[in-house]
Every structure is written in structure tokens, then in C-alpha cells.
Fold this protein.
Amino acid sequence: MSLAQPLLKARRIVVKVGSSLVTNEGRGVDAAAIGNWCRQLAELAEQGREVVMVSSGAIAEGMKRLGWASRPQELHELQAAAAVGQMGLAQMYETQLRAWGMTSAQVLLTHADLADRERYLNARSTLLTLLSHRVLPVINENDTVVNDEIKFGDNDTLGALVANLVEADALVILTDQKGLYSADPRKHPDAQFVHEAVAGDPALELMAGGAGSSIGRGGMITKILAAKRAAGSGASTVIAWGREPDVLLRLARGETIGTALLASTAKLAARKQWMMDHLQLHGAVSVDAGAAEKLSREGKSLLPIGVTDVQGEFHRGDVIAVLNAQGRELARGLSNYSSAEARLIARKPSADIARALGYAAEAELIHRDNMVLR
Ligand SMILES: Nc1ncnc2c1ncn2[C@@H]1O[C@H](COP(=O)(O)OP(=O)(O)O)[C@@H](O)[C@H]1O
Ligand SMILES: N[C@@H](CCC(=O)OP(=O)(O)O)C(=O)O
């Protein structure tokens, strides 16, 4: 049986690295390890792939800089450590990526940012814009502003949410083990290696234990759940050892290293299903026959020029219906503009949006990737 190669054809990839790898088990930001991944990231970019990095390590690095031997219990102490350590992380990625000719950007996110539809769309647009400029975003949780309830808690979950956000084709989780075993290999040296499985298979959750070191947080269970979440938007996950030589390049060449957790649904179908299940209607726009034809027959985005009427009050990021001249619902999707803005730009060419509003977000009122035909 030949094994799947989730990265071989992946165009957009999210790579997550854990604290113990990034900080060499808490000894401090590991320049050699980060340099190694950055070299590979630059080569992937050279191949025309878009990569987003999700890196942990801020708390571990901050603790080292502050001279703290053990991890504090107090949340604000952890947040302070993260603020200190994030400087070192960002500096290291910036320096190493620049050495390989890459421009990097720092993005700090919280759960609340992605739960709020407007901020979700803003984060998505910013990340996609960075990628379109061939900039490599380096993401971490914004530890300064999070409390227990709204924390991602572990960066595996953040990696999966970013994969959903940018509609990545694949998520790579680099850790201190070769992949998933049938039980925690630190406690069960005879555990069997899992080469491939379907993401979301409940049997996987029984195999996975908690963190193996005092540095990492989530352990294998959060990686299994992250793979399930990433599969929700059609991305397959690979869990692999971060110190495996040329791990990213070899995965991209189709080598079967680590554990592949495969998404069973296609990317766009999964995302659209998610939209249908989660979002309620906030308003509607009527469109002319030309726009109706473009949407229904050609699967195109809805541009403001085709909009003849705007109904209800909605915000950027709300779901609205698209109606034809007879009032039949053709589609629904996420609006890039509020109802007030939509009224100002209706019937106008997209080139006039900036003049009408004083700024332009997107050329489309609803992008086709954010739209489901009825
Ligand atoms: N079934 C399993 N297979 C592999 N590793 C496991 C398993 N169950 C628990 N673990 C533990 O998970 C650890 C990796 O998680 P963690 O320490 O949080 O790393 P990271 O910092 O990379 O997120 C491994 O070192 C291992 O001890
Ligand atoms: N934002 C925290 C993330 C901690 C965390 O999730 O670590 P890990 O389980 O090693 O990915 C930090 O940078 O320290």
C-alpha cells in the first residue's frame, strides 16, 4: 500500500513548531534550529508555495531571560514572560529569514479575534495580503491580552485555526517525536508508530497522551484535535520530528515522513459546509440579471456593480442572502462591507469603491470562496 503525501501538491502550508524545539528544551531560542527551518521555508517559497509559520516558545524564552527556573503558576507572570520572550522569537525569525532573502511579519492572535466575524475577516485579509506580497507571517498567540477562558491554550489549536483561516492545503506540526505512536513513547518504549490515519478518527484520541516535557504544553492530544479541526476546512496534517534533516523539503518532495492525518473532504466543500452550518442571515442584496448569471452559472464573486438593492442592517463579516430580481435566493455568503457601505457602492464599479467610501477593502461585495450557491 502506498502512503499519502499531503505536502506534495500543497500550495499553501501552515507549519507549527513547539516550544521545546524552538527553545532547545528551554535552554534559549535555538538559532541553529530556527535557521534550519527558515532555510527550508525560503526554498519552499522559491518553489512557489505560500507558507505561514506558527511558532511557540515565547514563555519558555521569557522565563530564561528573566532567570526563572520553574514555570510560574500565576497567569500574569506567564503573560509577562511571553511578552519578554516574544521579542527574542521575533528577532530570531526576522534575522534568519532575512538571511535567506525573505521578508517576515509578526502576527499575534487570540481566540476572540477568530470568533468575531469582522476580526476573522480582517485577520484573513491581512494574512492573504502578506502572502500575496511573498511575506512569511510568523504567528503566535497574543498572550498579553488573553485570560483562561479565551486562550487557545496551546499552539496546536492555533495552527489549525490558522490553517482554516487561510484555507491551507496542509498543516505540518513539528515536535520532539517522530510522529504519533499507539501510546506515549516516553512511557511505552514498545509503542507502534502510526504512519497514516484519517484525521478525526476517534481511535487516535485514545492513543494520545499529554505533554512529554515540562516545556511543551499540549502533548499529542492537542495535535490530534488540531488535525481534526484542520480537516474541517480540508487540510491534511503531518506530525513530524522538527530535527529530522530537511524535514519540510522532503515532505514537500512527497517523502512519507512522520504521521499523516488525512482530511476526508475537499477543501472548498468543507469550508462552505462550515459556513452553512455556523452562520445566520443578517440581511440581503438584490442583484441584476447579469450578476445573477455570473454567480449561478459561472461561480463568480459578487461585485458591487451588480447590486440593485440592499436590505436590512449588517456588518462586515455578516452572512447575507443574494436575491435575484424576482426575490429568489441565489446564494448566501460573507459580506466584505456593511449595509451602509453596500448602499454607497451598489451599482458602482469596484474601481470607484475607494472614492465612495474613502477606502477600499476588497473589490468584491462577496468573494466566491465565501459564498454558497442555493
Ligand atoms: N501517542 C503519542 N505519540 C507520540 N507522542 C506522545 C503520545 N502521547 C503523548 N505524547 C507526548 O507528546 C509530546 C509532544 O507534545 P509537547 O510536549 O506538547 O510538544 P510541542 O512543544 O512540540 O507541542 C511528546 O514528547 C510525547 O512525550
Ligand atoms: N504562546 C505560547 C505557546 C505555548 C504552547 O502552546 O506551546 P507548545 O505546546 O509547545 O506549542 C508561547 O509562545 O510560549
Summary: The pocket of VHF (ligand 2) is lined by residues 18-19, 56-60, 82, 140-141, 143, 154-155, 216-218 (CB under 6 Å). The two ends are 40 Å apart (CA to CA).
